[in-house]
Amino acid sequence: MKTTLSPELRALRLLTQLHYGRPRPSKVLSKIRQRDHRQTSRWGWRTHIRGIGLGLKRTNLEFVEGVHCLTLYVRRKLPEHRLPVQERIPKRLKLASVGQEVLTDIVELRGRITAHAASMIQPGNEVGHEQGEPGTLGLLVRKAGSPGVLALGCSHVLARSGVVDPAASNRVEHPLDVNADPEQNRFGQLTTDFVTLSRDEKASEDFALARVEVPWRPALADTGLIVSGIIDPTTIAQGTATLMNGVKTKDAHGIVLNSNWSGTVSDVPFVGDVDFENLVSYQTACLPGDSGTVVLQDGTTMALGIHIAGSPADNFGLFMPLGPVFDRLGLQVVAEEGSQ
Known about the structure:
Structural class: mainly beta
Distance between the termini: 47 Å
Number of strands: 20
CATH class of the largest domain: Mainly Beta
Strand order of the largest sheet: 7-6-10-11-12-9-8-20
Order of helices and strands: HHEEEEEEEEEHEEEEEEEEEEHE
Strand content: 35-45%
Number of helices: 4
Radius of gyration: 21 Å
């Protein structure tokens, strides 16, 4: 059965392809897409717009139930009369390739959206690649049919964003201490299951798996990180209540803003600025060092995804849904006590 995409989703996908994908010569675009590109190219995609997504329309900071829109996050929201005509984002946007009007919502994000980098090991601990930056261990998992326990976190925390030498030791540490003996804080070793991030390639995932080689235990109830399952990403909707407990930020209650966010994350360790798509944006307190921590549906033990970036000044975060990775790699959450 063919699913009909909403005009808002079609507009989101079109603008992501036109402005966050690899630059393409105008002659490669169809005439109708060239028209859409000319109409939207002066909005400031690299200087003014921080990201785009689907959301509910907001009036006076309150969501309008049932009114969907294309949300554009900007560095500064100026009165329309202060902007040149060609730089104004219309309240109702009609793109030739979509053929229907969609509502827009402009949301100001003044802080930078930066990558939150990050014995016994357990979810919520500070972890990092031996030559990397610290973040948070999100989950302990197993691959179906395989022995051993794996630590799941962000690639930019556990795998230096994929900038690793396969022949090197690639130790992962808890906590990360560059002044300690390399073996002192080692809890395991990076596997070959990790995402390589790049300034030149759009990404939709930021995760890595490391083999756990020390005693471990699942998160305890008082950490707020108990996980019993993974939520289907297609069911993550605007307004979903969230809970995040990172190394730096504890007991952060939030709410999903956009379930399909595209934009640029600045200062990803070892890479620089990276364009992302298919992330989920949410309103939450967060700090550098929280990357990798699991984001729960508040009031449940079900995981929505892992936190990968945010703008602390704006109480704005981004997480990567976990469902696709779990399905593709055959992962299962570890919930019982154990040791290696």
